[in-house]
Amino acid sequence: MTQKSYKMVGDYMNKRITFLQCYTAFFKISLFTFGGGYAMLPMVEKELVEGKACISEKDMLDSYALAQTIPGIIGANMAALVGRKVHGIKGAIASTMGFISPSIIIIMLISDLLIQYQEHSLVNNALKGIKAAVLALLIHTFIKLVIKSKEYIRNIFSGLLILAAFISVLFFGISPIYVIICAAFAGMLYYKRKGK
Amino acid sequence: MGLLSLIIDFFKIGLFTIGGGLVILPLLQEVVSKNGWLTPEQFANMIAVSQSTPGAIGINTATFAGYSIYGILGGLLATLALVLPGSILSVIIFNFINLYKNNIYVKYALHGIRAAVIGIILVAVCNIAKVVLFDMKSVLLFGAMLVGVMKFKRHPIVYILIGALTGVIIWR
Fold it and tell me: Which of A72, A81, B42, B143 is a Cys-bridge partner for B38, taking CB atoms 3.0 to 4.6 Å apart?
């Protein structure tokens, strides 16, 4: 009970950031995201969890999971979810606009140029190097996430869920959406029985 | 009229892109070929450019397609139309969860989800590792990056810039 009320206080203590900060944070995040939605996690962590300290690692995990189950682009959904959390509906709009702005600017400015030079190895080699950096960053973020969420994943049930999610997505190619929905129901059933 | 159908089509794509990223490509291909908006060559260029520029691939493709079809206004509207359904749904779902965040079932569900999403992120790590680690140089670069990331804890931007620079030098 005490822990519950503590958690509620913790939720209220979430720092709100301004409209403009939402926009610039997600502008930066998008500008340095190369690859799928997962590639934005290290940037979100650095900017919003550590930097502005306006969301927790737990919030980041939750919004990443939810963003995958909602139709649309995972990164944009995540921007809307996080923005809504830190600055209401206006925050959701600012974050989403911030997230799409770099794409709009860069594509319109340099797409013609890139088409000419896409065979050029310079761009490709830079991207290979960037992807090596993204992998290293992602592993670092992953380790931090596991450490920070120890309290949720210490029991055998969670361990099995992690393993089941990993195997079903990697080896059976099942869409993460279904895995997340199943995990939600599994969580309800397991903890309800345990709570009794 | 053309702009309106562009908006409607990209809104639909946004609504039916479930699972993000590359799921958008088949949907986009259908729409642009149905309307005769892009040639197959332009479509291939679009994928190449979208993957090599910053930002989410789905957003980049929408901007590219809209821009090629109707210029700057087309790029803006296509991108906005693409993200609109997801953003609206995100806010609705956030409000719903926020309303019930002290509901015990929502808490239990989130407990389960948090565990599963760790497994899902691990899959992303494996998938990107398969693409990234293709030769000795890339393994070495990745190893050095990992040590650097763990040890110095600088901003991710620093490592991305170093990665780009090193990539250009070592694969010359």
Answer: B42
